[in-house]
Each structure stands twice: as C-alpha cells, then as structure tokens.
Design a protein that fits this description.
With about 140 residues, the protein is of the alpha+beta class. The protein has two helices and seven strands, in the order H-E-E-E-E-E-E-E-H. Helices cover about 20% and strands about 50% of the residues.
C-alpha cells in the first residue's frame, strides 16, 4: 500500500513538471470595423508560453480551424491585436476564432473559442440601395 502511494505522489510530481505553465485571460474580444474583424485579448497570467496561435473557422474553410496569426508573448497586462481583413463574407453566417497557447515544452492548449455572427456588407449595401429607391 505504501509503495502505491509513493508511486502516485511521484507521478503527480512528474505531471506537475510537464504541465507547468499556463494562461489566464483578462478578456478576448471580437469586433467588426468596416469589412474587417478586430480580435484583441489580454492575459493576467502568461507562464512558459512560447507563442500564441489565433485560428479562424468559416464555412469557406470547410469548418476547419486555420491558423491566421502568430504572436510571441510580450508580458501580462498588454493587449494583443489582430486585424483580420481576409474574411470572405457571403450572406449571414458565423465566424469562429480560437486562441491556442503553445508552451516551451511543445504542448498546446486551447485557451478560448469565441463566435461572432455577421451579415455581409454587400447585403447591407443592397438593402440600403433598395430603401433609397423608394424614398
């Protein structure tokens, strides 16, 4: 029994060593600005992070997450920003962003996944044009 307890404590210490590091978010926001999407985030804890990867999923990416941005850590309390101007907007659909942390050990952790619904700017312009015709 004592031997089993010793093995479990040893495994716990090994696991803690390999799982060291971590990220705690202050915020993760997605906003639209014209045709672009602005993704910002800020961290409160940033331990052993090698880099952040921002991934995007749309219907045109076959509902697969695709890496769109990589950022090196630059300290807690400082904002990270990515302006995404490469989204093909076709009608009303959902856009998903996922933030991953890649640690120095090579491990990867999904920090957050967030969605935004949008209507194509082309649709809005067409509707505005139609309203203007009848005024």
């Amino acid at each position: 029994m004592r031997k089993i307890a010793f093995i479990l404590v040893g495994l716990g210490l090994v696991g803690a060593t390999f799982l060291s590091g971590g990220v705690r978010l202050n915020f993760f926001n997605i906003q639209t600005e014209g045709r672009d999407f602005i993704v910002t985030w800020n961290v409160d804890v940033e331990e052993d992070v090698h880099e952040y990867e921002l991934l995007r999923k749309t219907t045109t990416s076959n509902d697969q997450f695709v890496k769109v941005f990589t950022a090196r850590p630059h300290g807690t309390g400082k904002d990270y920003l990515f302006r995404d101007s490469q989204v093909y907007k076709s009608g009303s659909e959902q856009l998903d962003y996922r933030l991953d942390a890649v640690y120095s050990s090579g491990l990867r952790e999904i920090i957050i996944t967030k969605s935004i619904n949008y209507t194509s700017t082309a649709v809005r312009r067409t509707w505005g044009s139609l309203k203007a015709l009848f005024q």
